[in-house]
Design a protein that fits this description.
The complex is a heterodimer of chains A (291) and B (67). Chain A is α+β, with helices and mostly antiparallel strands and 291 residues long. Chain A contains 10 helices and 9 strands. In chain A, the strands form 2 sheets. In chain A, strands 1, 2, 3, 4 and 5 form a 5-stranded antiparallel β-sheet that branches. A 4-stranded antiparallel β-sheet of chain A has the order 7-8-6-9. Chain A is elongated and about 85 Å long. Chain B is 52% helix and 0% strand. Chain B has helices at 5-16, 31-45, 48-55. The chains are: A alpha+beta (291), B mainly alpha (67). Chains A and B meet through β1, α2, α3, β5 and α4 of A and α1, α2 and α3 of B.
Chain lengths: 291, 67
């Protein structure tokens, strides 16, 4: 009988011995590799399923991707209940325990530094969605310039009305962007003041969010466990303040610190990520506002 | 804390597939390949054009993740 080839799937790294009894249902035979005070939580997966070819094929199957991504998250969340973790990206695979242990050795000092920085902190997510029609309806009464043009349109010739309407739409669009920008800035800055670090991520399209509203802000915050209640209360206040204006504020967590564990020594994405964190000192850039 | 099923899945995919530590080394799949696969899922879920448009949206300032 030919033995099926297996790969080693890495979930997270921590500096306390992880308790893995609770994770049996999520991944049979989850185990850890230990080296110099660090523990890498891993599990064996089939090469046919997670090897280059298999992964490419399986990622096209949304149900497969969904269930594996959810399991990835749940395993890290379980480990996170006992200790701080460094979460790895989906599909981080090794050929042997030796190579995984070697990686722990290679990046050990850096992992320890990251874990010190993350100690007693959690990641919280903030996404803001906008229903443009509802938002427009809400502020229209207060926009005198727009109301004036509307009056003018009623008494104008067809040609003039056409150009007035274009002007009205442009003013409306600008006012809309200003409102969205104000809400996003206020939310981001208020929550950032209660956080150790904050970053803004790219927006996700409706096909991914499956919501009718547009995503207008996608941010993540690294919050001290002691400050989590204040953070949540502030997010709730913002949510209530804006909910009737067509701006939906969605705060989720606590998450493993996916957004705040970039390595400084690796090039490419992680290097960029660190760069972005350091640039996240304030919201936006005065020269590049909307409108 | 809102964790309705739909929101959670979106949040999970947004993190697990796109964030978290990326290590190159003795990996079976290179970082570039993982990214390709991630892109594959996105293409399935949306379209590359939509993503490109969003990068040019009013909020795509220097704060936006450059990709």
């Amino acid at each position: 009988m030919v033995e099926e080839k297996q790969l080693i799937y890495l979930y997270c790294v921590t500096d306390r011995e992880p308790k893995l009894e609770q994770t049996e249902a999520l991944h049979n035979g989850l185990y850890y590799v230990h080296r110099e005070g660090l523990y890498a939580v891993a599990g064996k997966v089939k090469e046919l399923e997670f090897g280059e070819e298999g992964l490419r094929r399986n990622m096209a199957d949304f149900h497969w991707a969904k269930s594996k991504a959810s399991a990835h998250e749940m395993i890290i969340e379980r480990v996170m209940t006992d200790t701080d973790v460094i979460p790895f990206r989906f599909g981080t695979l090794f050929g042997t325990d030796d190579s995984l242990e070697g990686m722990l050795g290679q990046y050990g000092d850096e992992f320890k530094a990251i874990l010190r920085r993350l100690a007693n902190k959690q990641e919280w997510g903030l996404k803001i969605y906008c229903d443009p029609e509802k938002l427009k309806a809400g502020f229209l009464g207060g926009e005198e310039r727009i109301l004036k043009i509307e009056d003018e349109i009623k008494t104008s010739s067809v040609g003039k009305a056409y150009f007035l309407k274009k002007r009205k739409d442009a003013l409306l669009e600008r006012a809309l962007n200003e409102k969205i920008d104000a809400c996003s800035r206020e939310s981001f800055e208020l929550l950032k003041a209660l956080s150790f670090e904050a970053r803004i991520n790219r927006l996700l399209p409706k096909e991914v969010t499956e919501r009718e509203e547009d995503m207008v802000l996608n941010a993540a915050f690294l919050v001290g466990k002691a400050e989590a209640n204040d953070f949540l209360a502030t997010a709730d206040t913002l949510k209530m303040h804006y909910e009737n204006d067509g701006l939906v504020i969605d705060c989720t967590g606590p998450w493993p610190p996916y957004n705040f564990c970039g390595l400084s020594t690796t090039e490419g994405q992680n290097g960029q990520r660190n760069d972005k964190i350091s640039k996240c000192d304030s919201f936006g850039n005065p020269g590049q506002g909307p409108g | 804390m809102t964790k309705s099923a739909n929101v959670t899945l979106l949040e999970i995919l947004d993190r697990v597939l796109d964030k978290g530590v990326v290590i190159s080394g003795d990996m079976v799949i290179s970082v570039a390949d993982v990214d390709l696969i991630y892109l594959g899922l996105k293409v399935l879920l949306s379209s590359v054009e939509t993503m490109e448009q969003l990068r040019g949206s009013p909020f795509a300032g220097p704060m936006q993740e450059a990709r």
